Amino acid sequence: MLCRLSRWRGSSAVGGRRRGVAVDEVGRGQICHRMGVEFHLQLLAGNEFFVDQVSQQDRECMKLLRRIGDTNVIISETVPNRPFFCRLCLQCFSNRTLQTHLGTHLGSQDRTAQTEPSDHQRSVHVQTESYLWEFEVGPGQWQAFLWDVQQILEDSYLDAMDTGGSHEINLTTNGFIYYIDIAAMTQTNPKTQRLRKIRRREESQITWLEDREGLLSKIAELEAQVLEMDEANKFHSRKVRTLTNEKQEVDVLLEESQRKNEKLTSEIIALQKQADHSAQVSLQEMWRTQHQGSPPSCSAIGVGDALFRKIQCLLRAAVPTSHHSQCDSMRQMELVSMEQIHNVKVWKNYQHRKNQLQEELKGVKVQSVASKLKDCCSWITLDTGLNEIIALHGTNEEKAKKIEETGFDYRLSREEGLYGQGLYFSDESCKVLQYSGALCNGMPSGVGCIIVARLLLGDPCFTNGPRKGERVEPYKDLANPGQGRFNSVIARAGIVGNAGQQQVHQEFVIYDGAQAYPELLLRFKC
Question: Where is the PARP catalytic domain (predicted)?
């Protein structure tokens, strides 16, 4: 503990007589009893202390201290039996040696009174303190004595401390006689025997207490403002976070809306191009009728055409998700070119066969067949009553040219076909890949050909197994051949196929080339 000696007042009653250290609460200050000498001390932080038990030798020290006023002597617990530390000399002293040492500083102070003080001496000053005597009027309530009584009490108090005289005085005020015990700090009315507590406070303590209460009130007010501002900041922070999250959500929605808008714009453009293409093809349908004697020809469809992109997407998607190995190649296929075939003669044969089927199947309920490629040629109006569908046919470049010129000819088909010597089609692009010429030993080898065709299935036969060697459709009823034959054969995925293995792809087989018309010739690579 380091304390600065302030102003001393001797007393044998304040705090009791004992050596060692004891601390008691007194108002806002404290009483510190140490080493047999009482000094009025003040901590650097502002707390007040006293040291009790006054000896004759100590009184001499007090006189010197009173002459030089406030000193730079401090109480230190670091050196046993030498509790006083002089900050001017940086030395420790006992209460016996302190007197001589203080005399040295007193002489030095007298010699330099007329000169400019040094840095150490600037810290030595006389601290004057006022006082206030009060009596208790109620629990925790105090009232000050009149001013003339204040002076009497203070003089008696100082005299008792300086001389060790009586601590008891008789006091007359306001017509009443009171018995004052300075040591016990009590006031007694001899007439009524009423006992009141009294107390003495110094102005520095009072002012400090008042300032402290004001500061505490100001601190409490500021703390309340800080809490209010903190709550406001938290509210605004939450609001900012909410607005930030809402902005992010709006940005996401805006970005998604922009993507949708771009997609819709692209689709609108594609539909416009497709509509233009449909109108163009419709005109070509009229042209076919008007130019029945014209030679076959082809018209190229550009890469930027909506139909080009549409068919490429359809071919990539026409691969069952359960198919892998070679089938995976078609999921990344790229169209190289696309041509629309114009062959009036083949078209005329197709229309003639279509009319025949309409007559044959009049009144006959046929089982409906669906194709995965129904949206491939949206400009075409298909006759669902005849099971007219869009299907794919894989072939090489040489045979593709012949089909362009003369149409499909079953006589050129393979005799060893699993379902007879017919023309094979499928609505799964990975199946026709096997015959397109784009693979060699199961590996991509170049450009392959696929023909997109209209196909008349009529009344189909759903076979349960291979039909090798057949050149015509099977009878509807072997026991009654007069009922006629089916118009096509359909091998569904899952039936027993080649060598007892399951059929993987769906295939359509016709035995009359007039039941197919080539619409588009596609060249692609994997």
Answer: 295-526
